[in-house]
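Final paragraph of the annual report: two paired records, presented back to back.
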Amino acid sequence: MRPNFQRPDVTELVRGLLIKWKTILVVIFSVAIITAAISLFLPNQYKSTANLMPVQNKSFGFGMLDNTAVGSLAGSLLGGSAIKDQMDRFYVLLKSYTVKKKVIDKFDLIKEYDTSNSKTPLLDAMNELDENTRLEGHDEGNFTIDVWDNSPELAQKMADFYVHLLNQFNTEISVKQAHEYREVIQKRYQKSVHDLDSLVQANAKFQKQYNVYDLPDQLQDYMTLMGSLVTQKIETEIKLDLLNKSINKTSGVYQNTHNELEAITAKIDSIKKSGDKQTISVSLDNLPKVYKRYFYLQMGLTVEKDIQKYLVPMYEQAKLEEAKAIPVVSIIDAPVVPTKKDRPHRSLIVISAFFSAFIICCAYFTGRNIYYHNKGYFKYLLHSDEI
């Protein structure tokens, strides 16, 4: 017959712990004393802190373009990122293999951390360096680098070296980005210069061919001239009709008027066919085609001039950005040589050991009490497992 599990009463469990209170006290105090003794052998570690503020690198040249889409684009491409983005970059740079390797080599941390005899001395040194380094971005906008070491002087030097590497690597990256950006702007600027030069030459050829310099004004003059000639023709025709009714066609006055009408008509026909050299050398039949060509030439020139109006300052500023090197951070509090140890926190270690031993002892005697009250049940389970 299978025995039933008897759930012990809480009062009974507490009574069982009180019976063993002396043993529990002996154990937890023994553990606390041993932990305290061991903690005395733990080396003191000193913390040095660098308190930094990311520099908002706002290029003065692009300040002129801040109200334009081009200015916004240029500013973002040349490092106008938010402070949070800069802090993310700090994490990536300072946690990189290259930076940690430089710190280890600079201060011979393989020897300092005593990892030379391990199978992977560099990797073990990096892991210990990670444990002794804390990088933290704060809501207030500052960024701190905390470094712990047994030597206060070494902790200060390592924190200071981190700041140096942060500025160095970020400057190299920024200069590289500026160089790539300058090359992009330069290629576009050179293309714009070539396109503008081609348009200028095409426009000069067009002007020479058609005697067109300012087509709207020239067309107005052209139409004024045509209007004047047509008016003269109409007046002459009326005069000739009147003379035809009053005098003989062989008379000198009639012949002069007739010749005048023929001259005016010939002039109008000539202008319609080939234009007027003083206004525009274009016939009326070809005028739509010429005006279309003129329109696209002027539009192209206007567009290219507007493009260069933006490209020239961007190109000049890109060259300045490539040439300069601005630190990525401002040092609010430089790392100093600490005078007081920061860890280990021996009191916290002893208190943690004290309460851990207390919990383990209570759990042990509680479990033991439950077992004795259900010994038959556990033996049955053990026996059934064996079967």
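The closing record of the year follows.
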Amino acid sequence: MKKIALVFASIVLVAGTITFTGCDKTNTVAPTVVLIGDASVTTPLNAAYTDPGATATAEDGTILTVTTTCVPAFNKDIAGTYVYTYSATDVDGNTGDIDRTVIVANDARYYEGSYAATDDGISGTWHFAWTETITASTTVNNRIVFSRFAYYTGCNPYADMNAAHTTINMPQQSINCGSPAEMRTFTGSGTVTTTPMVITVNLTEVSGSPAQTYTGIDVFTKN
């Protein structure tokens, strides 16, 4: 009788152990995080951007709260690449995440590059030719920056295109440039074509002592 009781106790102990082990199962599956919208987005410089976010679901179907971070901190007024990371953690401590790349870009970036440039006098008979490098502003949309405007070394004024990229305007700017260097004030306006890519600026320069006014035309043809 004692032997039977011991066998029964052993069976109960084993069964209890099996039952306990079965209840100790833990979920190790990370939540599913899904982007709302595209994985890569390009937005114009200076334009408002509203991120669409993401959704997250645990293995058992529970809707989870999504935490969003962005590196570097998003700034619509600085051109660059920003990475949004969306993450969610379930009750078992499992975390899932997904990324979206947001590119803040100057709409005039297509005009960056090397140009064959000429500068011809309207108020005089000069002619110069050189290789120009044009860059797109990283802070103002549709703005480009010259590297050697009017053939002067160290002369880097900016000019603003209209949204359609058909006209260009150079607000008044005073730059210490040329050789020898002196303060020169430029204003100008002109046209832009895309096929071929040509930027034409009718310019006015005020420089010298006493101040003199010169007019000319700069033509930039993309190489």
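The chain has two domains: 29-105, 109-222. This concludes the annual technical report; the extension proposal builds directly on these records.
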